[in-house]
Amino acid sequence: MTYAYDFMEVKKFHDQGIKGQGVKVAVMDTGIQKHEDLNVIGGYNAYNSNIPYDSDIAHGHGTRVAGIIGSSKNGIAPECDLYAIRIDNNTGSNGGLRFNEQVKGINWAIDNDIDVLICSISSTYDTIERRMAFSNAYYAGIAIFCSANNRQGNFGTGLSRMFYPGNYPFVVSSGNITRDKKKYGSSSVGNQLNFSSGGVNVNTTTNDPNSEISNKYTNGTGTSYSNPAVAGVYCLYKNMYPNDSREKLLERMYVNAEKLGDPRLYGAGIPKYPSIEYENISMKRKEL
Fold first, then answer.
1. What are phi and psi for residue 29, nearest 5 degrees?
2. In Å, how far are 21, 77, 230, 231 from 13, measured between CA atoms?
3. Is 224 a catalytic residue?
4. Domain locations in the chain as residue ranges
5. Distance CA 97, CA 200 (A)
6. Top-level CATH class of 4-266?
7. 174: three-class secondary structure by DSSP
8. Spatial distance between the Cα atoms of 201 and 47, rounded to a whole number of angstroms
9. Whole-Å CA distances, 30 to 61, 91, 171, 199, 288
10. CB neighbours (10 Å) of residue 48?
11. How many angstroms separate the Cα of 256 from the Cα of each of 192, 220, 278?
């Protein structure tokens, strides 16, 4: 279980029976292997439609990301409708997430009425086609959650090391914090950051290359793990307030977030169970 579960008061939602039911979530990543703790109900292989989205998977990143939000035992939104959008080139590296496949995957999400798109991916450069695809998904009503990236390192916090798609103005970007609620060293900072959550040494589902259905778990660190945790809370809010727009749900999360300090390092802070009723306060607009 991720310590973000406690930070974000997930149990308060679950105790009310709010577990993300009916929210369609797509993890756009390296694919999701069949796993005893995951219920993936559909998906798409954008790289090679002849290979199922959930078999012959060379890299476990997508399975690990999926476990944070959708694990039936420890997931933030364990009853969401989980989908896999596989965009890797099956070389065994999650660096093989090619732009053309991202565009195809996003278009699949639009065509299939996905509510939440999780993108724990990053690149230092961009293309017009990919930006337009993400923009189209936003205007189609999808809530897009992206990792802030893990590129800050020894760079001072005055320099933003957030890249694409995490710094698009139409996505929600999440940073990584420690159990002490401090920014983790590699977690990228910038004006485009929206929220933070726990993503250090997190236990989650992973692949088993020797089995058709995995029962394996592993620990991982990075914004790839804090990002689906934040997306999971959005699913819980959407479950709790089914008539709210995407913007109003995000504003609820913003108002109720636990503030941690400099917004460039933490965004609005940790999203939590809503103890404050909605106020007409907008999230800080991202810089283009």
1. -165, -145
2. 12, 9, 14, 14
3. yes
4. 4-266
5. 23
6. alpha beta
7. strand
8. 30
9. 6, 10, 20, 19, 28
10. 14
11. 19, 27, 9
Nearest in space to 202 (alpha carbons), one of 182, 185, 177: 177
Query: 217-220 and 202-205: which strand pairing?
Result: antiparallel
Asked if the model's pLDDT at residue 97 lies above 80, the reply is: no
Q: Kindly write down the DSSP assignment for every residue of 18-34, as one continuous string.
A: -S-TT-EEEEEES----
Residue 261 token pair: 């300090």
Q: Which of 35, 37, 61, 196 is catalytic?
A: 61
3-state secondary structure of 270: strand
Percent of the chain with pLDDT over 90: 78
Cα–Cα distances in Å, from 77 out to 165, 185, 220, 254, 284? 23, 27, 19, 19, 26
Catalytic residue among 29, 81, 88, 115: 29
Given the residues 71, 188, 214, 224, the one annotated as active site: 224
Q: Is 14 a catalytic residue?
A: no
Q: What is the pLDDT of residue 125?
A: 83
Check whether the bond before 274 is cis (ω within 30° of 0): no
The pLDDT of 72-91, averaged and rounded, is 93
Whether 280 shows a pLDDT value over 60: the answer reads: no
Question: Could you confirm whether 61 is annotated as catalytic?
Answer: yes
Rounded to whole angstroms, the Cα distance separating 8 from 11 reads: 9
* CB-based contacts of 181, cutoff 8 Å, min separation 6: 7, 260, 270
What pLDDT score was predicted for residue 132? 97
pLDDT-derived band at 288 (thresholds 50, 70, 90) equals: very low
In 46-121, beta strands by DSSP E: 81-86, 116-119
Inform me whether the pLDDT recorded for 179 exceeds 80.
Answer: yes
Residue 130: strand, helix, or coil: helix
pLDDT computed for residue 1 by the predictor? 62
Q: What pLDDT score was predicted for residue 91?
A: 74
Q: Which residue has the tokens 């999360």?
A: 253
